[in-house]
Amino acid sequence: MTGKFRRRYFHLMAPTAAIAVLVGCSTVENTYDTVSSIWSTPIILPCPDYKILADAARIVQFRSGQGTDLVDVNIDGRLGDLTMECKTELDKDTRKGAMEVDVKVTFGAKRGPANLNKKALLPYFISVTDHKRNVLYREEFKIAVEFPGNQSALQFFGETVKLELPLSAKITSRDYLIFTGFKLTRAQLEYNRRIKGRNRL
User: pLDDT per residue over 64-89, tens digit each?
Assistant: First the structure.
C-alpha cells in the first residue's frame, strides 16, 4: 500500500444522540448552519471503473501430482462479477475528500472428480491503480468453499472489502481503476491461456 491510499473499516455511531448533543449545546446561528448542511444537496460521484482480468477469471486446481486430465481436477473456480457501493465525502469548496467503496466479488465453483472432502480454498486479489496504471493498493484473499450434501456446484459472494479513495480538485473517482482476479500459479495461468486458445478454434 503506498501514498495516502488505504483500506479502512468504518463503524457506525449513534447519529440521533450526536445530533441531540449538538443542538443542545449550540447557538441559534450554529444550529441553523447545522440544519442547512443536513438539507444541502450532497455531492455524488460515480463509482470507479473496474476490470476482471480475463486470464485470471478462472482457477483450476488439480490433485497433487502431474496429472491434468479431467479426472485429476480437484476444483474449478470461476470469477463471476464485481459489485460496488460508493459513498462520497467531499468538501464543496476545496473539492478535497474521499470516496468509501465497498467491493464484493461473486464466485462460482465446481467439484472435480479428485475432490473427496467437498472442500476447497480459492485465492484471489483486489487491486487499485491510478489513471497511469500505477498500483496504489493490492491485497490477497482466500475464500473457503464447502459443498453441502451432494451438491457439486455453488455460486456465492466473497467478503466485503472496504476501500477509501482520496479525492481532490484534480483527482476524481474516474481516475481510479479496480482490478480483480484469481491469484494463479504460473502453471494455472498457462493452463487458462491454453484452454482459452482451444475455445477460439
Answer: 877 888 999 999 999 999 999 999 99
Q: How far apart (Å, rounded) are the C-alpha atoms in residues 80 and 157?
A: 9
- Please say whether the dihedral angle defined by the alpha carbons of residues 107, 50, 90 and 130, taken in this order, is positive or negative: positive
Q: What is the pLDDT of residues 97-109, one digit of tens each?
A: 999 999 999 999 9
The C-alpha torsion from 137 through 172 and 100 to 106, rounded to 10°, is -60
Closest CA to 105 of 127, 73, 134, 120: 127
- Report the alpha-carbon distance of residue 184 to residue 59 in Å, rounded: 7
- Residue written as grid cell 463503524: 11
Dihedral angle over CA of 75, 145, 161, 140, nearest 10: -50
- Cα gap 37→41, rounded to integer Å: 8
